[in-house]
Amino acid sequence: LQGTPSRTRTPDPPERRTRPNLLRHHAPLARISLLGADTRATSSEVVADKMCAKIHYIAPNIYCCGAGTAADTEKTTELLASNLSIFSLNSGRNPRVVMAAQIVQDMLFRYHGQIGANLILGGVDCAGGHLYTIGPYGDMDKVPYLAMGSGDLAAMAILEDGFKPNMELESAKKLVRDAIHSGIMSDLGSGNNVDICVITRQGVDYIRPYEESVYKDKRERRYKYKAGTSAVLTERVIPLEVVEETVQSMDTA
User: Which parts of the chain register pLDDT below 50?
Assistant: First the structure.
């Protein structure tokens, strides 16, 4: 979300947390950047990871949400973070958000969509809060708010309905939480917890988890049956002869 904080009440700087750091959402206020994501990673119809971190560190003032192929989004953001850390060491200052967006845009454009990374890049610099969306083909746009991922249609509906230019920080957090929850309820590929990252000039507040899932399946009964529950009608044992046995050692170094 992007706008100007209300002048009637200035929110206190968020407490810096030391906790380690897809519906993917971003909500920057004029001087604040707010990112949110779910924590479910899937492999086809199988839930591969229930605590996948989809908000990636780029720089002290920039974070990035990723949707698409998990390996591509992680390695792309790691490469971007490495390049920007070299810039910071040489210049002695934090990078601009538009600089990070242009670097990753140029890299993705060269691969013509072969890297399945849909990114939402958000951060705060000397010019305020910024939000950029970068597609796998190198297309880039600057937007006030955005949702990406398999549950983005339901999430975008909540963002479009509740977004206001002059939102309080807590209201923006609730809006992002509601958008992610809407995507979770409407999409099997999204789920589990809600993570939120608040970026200001004073620092970063990475809340993981911001909210644990309220939609969890409970097993109603045990599916371990007693021996003899299913009757054995016939039994046939076929002996197998080992013709050749080969043992190969695997290098684990």
Answer: 2-24, 27-28
Tokens matching residue 84: 């920007």
Token pair 């698409």: residue? 68
d(CA 223, CA 59): 48
Domain ranges within the chain, ordered by starting residue: 24-211
Which pTM was predicted?
A: 0.75
Q: What gap in Å lies between CA 96 and CA 128, rounded to an integer? A: 10
Homologous superfamily assigned to 24-211: Aminohydrolase, N-terminal nucleophile (Ntn) domain (3.60.20.10)
C-alpha to C-alpha distance for 113 and 26, rounded to whole angstroms: 23
Residue type, 142: K
74-81: long-range contacts, CB 8 A cutoff, minimum separation 24 = 76/104, 76/107, 76/108, 76/115, 76/117, 76/119, 77/119, 79/107, 80/104, 80/107, 81/56, 81/57
How do residues 10-21 score in pLDDT, each as one tens digit? Answer: 444 433 333 333
